[in-house]
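Changelog-adjacent note: as of this version, every example in the card shows the full chain rather than a window. The one below runs 213 residues end to end.
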Amino acid sequence: MFLAGGLSDVINMHFRTYVRVYVLAILIFIIGVVFGSLAIRILTPAQKTELAQYLTGFCRSFGSVSPVTRAVTARDSFAGNIKTLLIAWLLGLSVIGAPLILVIIFMRGFMMGFTVGFFVSELMVKGVLFSLAAVFPHSIIAVPAIIIGCTGGMVFASSLVRDHFSSGRVGLRALFATLTAFVVSTVTLILVAALVEAYITPVFIAVATKYLL
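Full-length structure tokens:
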């Protein structure tokens, strides 16, 4: 009970201290979503038709996904997101590469915005419903995990800079331990998201494809 309370206090203090960094990361992600949705306009009608045909065939294949395919999907999703976190964390440790973390967050938002935007532009209201089935189930877990994990690298980099130029000490060892714990905890969320993407999202996609496509 005491440990849980202490951990809660540490987490609350961390977010209160670095709330601006996390807000910035969320805004960058939202901007990425907006730009991704607007990028649909640069596609030619032929490109839209080709992409629509590919996605329709791809989605209809979810009705007969084998257990092996699901396992491969979970593995690839987990490995891809872990690689993203690792790159972001290394960029944060390098300090000079920290701004590139915002690029990573932006691109994640861009890809989601492009996917949802395409479905909506092609299917209108049905596209909204289809996006909820195809993107929402695992993204609601993966996106916060990616943002928190990536932002941890930015927080550490900004703390290194502040520690270098300020007379007081920031307490980098304690901060590093806290952020490392944050990143490790996001691994659990990413694993859950990968399992949802492999075993639950395909069920929603199969149902949505049957009634919406």
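Structural remarks: The mean pLDDT is 81.
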